[in-house]
Amino acid sequence: MLARPTNFDHHWLPFTNNRMFRETPQMFAKAEGVRYLTPEGDTVLDGSSGLFCTPAGHGRREIADAVHAQLMTLDYTPHFQRAAPVSFELAERLAGLLPEGLDRVFFASSGSEAVDSAMKICLTYHRAKGEGQRTRFVSRNWGYHGVNLGGTSLAGMVNNRREFSGVTCDVVHMRQTWSEEQRYTQGQPETGAELADDLEEICRTYGADTIAGVFVEPIAGSIGTVVPPKGYLERLRAIADRYGLLLIFDEVITGFGRTGAAFASQAFGVTPDIVTMAKALTNGAIPMSAVATTAAIQDTVFAAAGDQDRPELFHGYTYSAHPVACAAALATLDIYRDEKLFERAAALSPAFLDMIFGLRNLPQVSDLRGYGMLAGIQLAPADKPGAKGSLAQRALFDAGLHVKATGDALIVAPAFVSGEDDLEQMGDILRRVLGRADLS
Ligand SMILES: Cc1ncc(COP(=O)(O)O)c(C=O)c1O
């Protein structure tokens, strides 16, 4: 048995019903491979790679060793007017993985910070071009872009913005892309590409010359995996080009193999101007995120500074490019390369999606969506929205499976090192729990 805390009063948990948690805490005390261990010693299969963070599985010694070695060599570097070699090595490695042309990398520590950094890069770029009036952003209903004030403004998940709307910035939302006719579609839906025209409508209504950029998750992850309709992202790209907007793909979940390609932009064949990434960048081991953009954008920003002795971008964090996080990321990228984990994700995807779509006729299931190694299970709602998701998540934990729940959707995202037997066990638990007529 591993120690369980005796006092739950002091840690205020994020995105948690703390009152319920304190009554019946569901905790992890240890992790290895694709399994967690509770303080009581029970095994819980990890069906969501933690929070979409650990495609290489838990407890990777290579990452731990790299972190230890970096701590003993150079534990911290300021990155304001200073730097360490390790961050340049990481930026170059990322440039080799990203879509062609996205080869300038800015580092931060979380997905939320990456999103806010990307917003500021957009604003600085337009100002550098003499278009400082472009201060408005476009995003999408049901979108999730982290919880800092920039990301909260972009958010299209209502609960995440309702209480903070007094301090959000100017964002106009496009419609989300799911529709009734897409129910139970595996992969990209055939219908809905024309919803991208919302962007054109917004450009006409608000004036394209007031808009800096458009943020979308290529697959809307946190809402429960909404896969883009065929042609939708292409159409967004064309409209953004027509009106001089920057297109930003928030790949905090989809980056690093989740779609079977390094980035979803490559899987869908649409290249944005900016990509944000986090989570699997270090296999979740050390907080780190990044924003990648093009030389053209960086050159424009640098040129505006001319020969003045000042930063080109008035933005950065104490922990930007933390050397220990860089070391963790480099060790993670080595694992992805050496174990061909993105290829493995692509190879495992059909078995994974077959397992998910085999849940179709269960009493608790009302829709299934999926692409690559990411799937959404929509539950038939109870009286109150969100209640079923919470019940299901807790029941699944008790049955030995961890999955992320948002509202009445479960989001399944196994590690790429999962075996087919792990996927079978996942399927068994999902069938057992979601097959119940009553989850309470
Ligand atoms: C698309 C997207 N953007 C941003 C974030 C925020 O990342 P973080 O929680 O690391 O701040 C998330 C987190 O799930 C995300 O899915």
TrEMBL record:
MF terms in GO: pyridoxal phosphate binding; transaminase activity
Family under the similarity heading: Belongs to the class-III pyridoxal-phosphate-dependent aminotransferase family.
CDD domains: OAT_like
Cofactor: pyridoxal 5'-phosphate
Record's keyword annotation contains Acetylation: no
Lineage: Bacteria, Pseudomonadati, Pseudomonadota, Alphaproteobacteria, Hyphomicrobiales
Protein name: Aminotransferase class III-fold pyridoxal phosphate-dependent enzyme
InterPro entries noted in UniProt: Aminotrans_3, Aminotrans_3_PPA_site, PyrdxlP-dep_Trfase, PyrdxlP-dep_Trfase_major, PyrdxlP-dep_Trfase_small
Keywords: Aminotransferase, Pyridoxal phosphate, Transferase
Superkingdom of the organism of origin: Bacteria
